[in-house]
Give the backbone structure.
Amino acid sequence: MVQEKWLQAAQLSDILPEVWEALQTKVDRMIGQLQGKIPHVAGEDGIYDSTIPDWWTSAFWPGILWIMHDMTGKAHYRDAAWDWDATIEQATLRDNRFHHDVGFQFLPTAVIKHKITGDKDGLRRGLQAANFLAGRFNVEGNFLRAWNQDKTGWAIVDSSMNLSILFWAAEEIGDPRFKHVAKRHADTVLRHFIREDGSVNHIVVFDPETGECLHSLGGQGAAPDSSWSRGQAWALHGMANTYRYTGDIRYLQAARRVAHYFLACLPDDYVAHWDFRANGGDLAGEPRDTSAASCAASGLLEIAAALPEAEGRMYRAAAEKMLLSLTQHYGTWDRPEHEAILLEGTGNKPAGQNINVSLIYGDYYYVEAIAKLMGWQRKIF
């Protein structure tokens, strides 16, 4: 049994080539199992559901496929991923749910498709998404509006990860407006989302007329002053990405502060609980969130890459410990009928939704992080 064998490994580098081969086998099998589904959540039965094209998670599966194609050159990954940006774009032509997360939807589809193949439709779709996101910018509060309906003054830490599509657009067409919007939102993250101790707010509410910061909300965390681990990962990874695009040391310093807090809160097996302050800090029995762990691991590798080797070694080592634990204890390697890669994700515990499940974005960031360790250089977030 693969997983039993891997339990003997003391460090990820001992088994990394085997893990990469196993990932290819796993993704090949998923292509056959998913059969065009738009996966989001797989429950106890191991079967991924199928959501709608304009749902925020709709592009993580094709993102996995594009990474596999970029790393291996194998055409079947490209062929399986090719039409996804067109499918998602079709939803823009009718009533839809697009909002602050269009980066999540078009970076792993249209943008990477254009980067790898030069496809002009991918370029057009990516730029349209960047335009849409920039149009959500509130100039008084310097934030990107979250969600739709009546939430006109809400901003969300998840948007830290969506800034990359704005930075990409600015570079692609030589128009700094997109960069200006992204930096101003990133500055708002530094000012109002990342706390002094490195923990983060999930939702911050502003007066949409004046831009005044009113208060924070718990959102998917346990409470307004809690520490939702996936929100920590979004901030950690997103600020590291923002540093990569801007070279502004403030963003790297913020990413490191969040990383230090994240690492200090981890349990012995290096896989985060869903909220670091849930239940008054007594986390015994609280569910894990492997999606937070995989996203944070990928972000830690970004921090390491931004630093001199000696200084970045700690972050890389921490990422490898997290990925080793995910590989050894949370993978589905010996369950070929299971359609996901990682177990024990937590979607939204306060709402009682998707607890102890597999989440496609957890799978994506695991693949992204392993690919980075294998030498992948084409960053899309």
The chain has a mean pLDDT of 97.
